[in-house]
Amino acid sequence: MEGTPRDRARSQTMADIVRIGRQHLSTEGAAALSLRAVARDLGVVSSAVYRYVASRDELLTLLVVAGYDELGDAVDSALGKVEEGDFGARLSAIGTTVRAWAVGEPAMYALLFGSPVPGYHAPAERTTEPGTRVVRALVQLWAQAYAAGAIQVPQGPPVPGSLAEAFVAVRAELGLDLPDQVLARGVLAWAALFGCISFEVFGQYGPDTFGDPAALFEHQLRVLAETVGLTDRA
Amino acid sequence: MEGTPRDRARSQTMADIVRIGRQHLSTEGAAALSLRAVARDLGVVSSAVYRYVASRDELLTLLVVAGYDELGDAVDSALGKVEEGDFGARLSAIGTTVRAWAVGEPAMYALLFGSPVPGYHAPAERTTEPGTRVVRALVQLWAQAYAAGAIQVPQGPPVPGSLAEAFVAVRAELGLDLPDQVLARGVLAWAALFGCISFEVFGQYGPDTFGDPAALFEHQLRVLAETVGLTDRA
DNA sequence: CGAAACCGAGAGCACTGCTCTCGCCAATCC
DNA sequence: GGATTGGCGAGAGCAGTGCTCTCGGTTTCG
Prior knowledge:
The structure is a homodimer.
Chain A: H1 5-28, H2 35-42, H3 46-49, H4 56-80, H5 87-104, H6 106-113, H7 124-131, H8 133-147, H9 161-174, H10 180-201, H11 213-227
Helix pairs in contact in A: 1-2, 1-4, 4-5, 4-6, 4-7, 5-6, 5-8, 5-10, 5-11, 8-10, 10-11
Chain A binds a DNA duplex through helix 1, helix 2 and helix 3.
């Protein structure tokens, strides 16, 4: 687009590196991601790649950001196709989209939400923003549902004091208006959602133990909606 | 104990290898587990280790089994200290024990419940039995609670057909007597439990976002008890 | 046009998993 | 008791890894 031919060539090469890296990530997994192999596929000697990527860790960061972005885009796109006021369907859209993406790209999902790669620490300033898109979509959904009166605030066990204190900052940062109970259950639903997906993707359920995984997940989503107090429409 | 001196020396060396491997796993992480480094710590050249362990993958398997066993023992021990009929306390014991163990041994937890190590496939015949101890403790707890009338079968969304069919085999294999609703919610609670722990151990919550993690987890456990319909005592 | 920046190739270091051969020593067999 | 077998550690070696450095060649810019 812009800049000198050299700049364009450079960003083209960068894009190629990320693309090839994603391929290797899909087929081999994160720990097997080798800068030398990427260089080979790029048709270049290994040291040349270091002109573009400072280290293997930085390549991982590039892939992490690309993965978060792709997942966030998928969720946003799915939400765009669901009626604004149908909160149950919106929650279902978020959940099934994340699950489908995770099943389709298990290695990338593992990189983002699985065990951290040893020795690698994702730089917060580059990964937190794209990495929180899904959870922000979730809390936004709950906030809208609550504002529309579509959430019946659950009774349940009392929210511990330290959690309620922390919620003050969370509310301020996200500009939320949600009671402690809903917020606390929202955190649980968030963790549970990814727990269900991780169990399926990482094979913790075992093979064919619970029948159709999509049906199982759909049911789990419904129960989670109940957990946060979401009632189908106001 | 038994066998020739050579046999005893061999099993001693095996135990040393596993012990050193666990140390490296704790400090470096699974992907950085190096057979050569273990050999160095053992005071022996790398090829000598191959007399005891066929490959790096087999060392991983040994560590996986050791980890599952340790976690299972911890859970059993904790359950032994809780009154038989106090089902809420028993669920809490299981949950907090798993969480405490995970926080104390994050690398081992990641190896067992995080993203699978690429290229490594745990042999089912050696890992499924110890790997299912926690979930078996969970369903046993629910079965006992249900038999004691301490579970109020939830209404909630209907259990999908494929799941109900799969439950037939599950019930037969574990000798259970639990309605579909409880079983389905039990699966969800199981996945959610590990989802919460994984989020904490893997740092998905972010630093200090929700205050005291133990308090957060305790609250989540209580909500999960509610999810499966567990009522404090009959 | 010349200086400066950029970039690819190649060599090299330290590390990894793993295989192979060579001896040494102990347990076993006759 | 002597010969044989088998386990075991050491060492060399292969192919791969991340990463650094230097050396030319090309492109860009002042």
